[in-house]
Design a protein that fits this description.
This protein is of the alpha+beta class and about 130 residues long. It contains 3 helices and 9 strands. The longest helix has 11 residues. The structure holds ligand LP2KCY5N and cobalt (II) ion. GO terms for molecular function: metal ion binding; methylmalonyl-CoA epimerase activity.
Length: about 130
């Protein structure tokens, strides 16, 4: 069911410093910061030859990444995102297999304008997984 690795997300306490590090020290192609109010985060995307890195910083008072950054104040790897062809079919199969879909259970439009959803980290080897329909 899952296809390509779309991105690996890293939560960071200082988005500008992290973007500078990837741009100037690691020599990567780094986007501008974009607020994602529907997701409670600000994102910066880094283009790599075979995938993307998503830098995440909390936006607003109820950011879903606030707890993670409180536990990991220096930042850390937050989620991996796998591509799927049909997110509704994927969600139905995963629910039938007992995995918990986070939020209201329905896909939302993600940073690339495509439907995304998240699966509980305790159901997937301690790793928060995002699915993106491509
Ligand atoms: C920009 C849009 C989109 C895109 O297109 O790319 C994005 O990427 S948006 C990214 C931000 N959005 C989300 O992460 C949405 C889904 N996440 C959530 O709903 C929450 O973050 C969460 C997974 C439910 C965790 O919320 P939290 O408030 O931290 O809850 P708990 O404290 O109850 O955590 C439960 C349990 O899970 C552990 N945990 C939390 N976060 C992670 C994580 N990222 N990876 C692995 N494990 C995680 C947490 O430590 C708790 O464990 P215990 O302490 O053992 O109970
Ligand atoms: Co993501």
């Amino acid at each position: 069911m899952i296809g390509k690795l779309n991105h690996v997300a890293i939560a960071v306490p200082d988005l500008e410093a992290a973007a500078d590090l990837y741009r100037n020290t690691l020599g990567a192609t780094v986007s501008e910061a974009v607020d994602q109010p529907d997701h409670g985060v600000t994102t910066v995307f880094i283009e790599l030859p075979n995938t993307k890195i998503e830098l995440l910083h909390p936006l607003g008072e109820n950011s879903p990444i606030a707890g993670f950054l409180a536990k990991n104040p220096a930042g850390g790897m937050h989620h991996v995102c796998y591509e799927v062809d049909d997110i509704t079919a994927a969600a139905e199969k995963l629910k039938a297999d007992g995995l918990r879909i986070l939020g209201d259970g329905n896909p939302k439009i993600g940073a690339h304008g495509k439907p995304v959803l998240f699966l509980h980290p305790k159901d997937l080897c301690g790793t928060l997984v995002e699915l993106e329909e491509v």
